[in-house]
Amino acid sequence: MRSGFNLLMAIFIILLLAGASVLTLKYTSISAKHFADSYIKEQAEIFSQSVLETAILKIEGTDRSTECLTLFSLDSADGKFTADVNISTYYLYADDYDNATGTNCNNVKKRIQTEESNGYVLINITVQTNSSNKKIGDYISPVRIVTRSLQRP
To answer: In the beta sheet, which residues pair with residue 93?
Structure first.
């Protein structure tokens, strides 16, 4: 009778240890996926800020008498992310409003009343993961970050 009870107790302890190890492995895999997803999200946010600064640089280099920059796309250097930039509104004061006669300018320029706000632009940026990149693959959740910013180039 005593050896039967010991066998039953040993099986119970083995099952208990097996259950604890399964829970530990499950928690480890969830934790690893969470860290990978968080890392990709942080990279996307940093890339979004970089795209905003690139958009401001491109706006500064564009002559509004010949063209108003409205849409363009960028890819990250490692190919993990793509960004679509939409410059939806140029806020211009008096002379600058009249001088902005280039292509696409009539659709995006808006006359303002205060000289202090001259030159502001409303920029919409959408950054998303490139699922065809082998570093992203299917094991990382897709990331999509939309940023709207009012900037003065």
So the answer is: 112
Distances (CA, A) of 32 to 3, 26, 27, 131: 43, 10, 9, 19
- pLDDT at res. 53: 94
The residues that bridge with 75 in the sheet, in sequence order, are 82
Tell me how long the chain is.
Answer: 153
Helix, strand, or coil (residue 72): strand
Q: Do residues 55 and 87 touch, judged by C-beta distance below 8 A?
A: yes
Q: How far apart are CA 73 and CA 98, in angstroms?
A: 28
136 within 8 A of 80, measured Cβ to Cβ? yes
pLDDT tier, 1 (very low <50, low <70, confident <90, very high otherwise): low
For residue 71, count CB atoms less than 10 angstroms from its CB and return exposed for 0-12, middle for 13-18, buried for 19 or more.
Answer: exposed
- The pLDDT of 70-97, averaged and rounded, is 88
Q: What is the pTM of this model?
A: 0.78
What is the Cα–Cα distance from 81 to 58, expressed in whole angstroms?
20
SS3 19: helix
